[in-house]
């Protein structure tokens, strides 16, 4: 199990600031759809749902494309990392390394990303509520990854 907390040299309020580029919530949803469609993920299906978790309204976005490992989850929840390339003529939409952060933070105050890939499972959290609660003066992003090898022992011992 690999656990770490990404510390960005950015104030927590930047998450909101950056999200205001989406005047329309549908532009924010489009960022998440674009990411699933892009050639690195190449999802064939995409599901959007509305659900209640602990009396809070949540939107869930799920795709069946390629997942993330620890390193790519790190990049997804940071700013400015984007290394998408065209695959078989499928040209990527994303290029700035910003859309997920601006889009998700426009739709809600908190986002949790669950991902499964060949190497295991990974969870990352971008949460304005959490940062407010701990009085953070920098953006902190907790990431937990369970690799396939650890996964079997995790299941065995729990
Ligand atoms: N649904 C997803 N599945 C797997 N990886 C994803 C998914 N969404 C985003 N990513 C990864 O997270 C990275 C960051 O996404 P983000 O939307 O912030 O930037 P981008 O798509 O590279 O550029 P842009 O800002 O132009 O959208 C992507 O480059 C991609 O590697
Ligand atoms: Mg994008």
Automatic annotation (TrEMBL):
SUPFAM superfamilies, sorted: ATPase domain of HSP90 chaperone/DNA topoisomerase II/histidine kinase
GO cellular component: a single term: PML body
Pfam families assigned: HATPase_c_3
Molecular function (Gene Ontology), one example: ATP hydrolysis activity
Stored InterPro entries: HATPase_C_sf, MORC_ATPase
Protein name, per record: MORC family CW-type zinc finger 3
Source organism per UniProt: Oryzias sinensis (Chinese medaka)
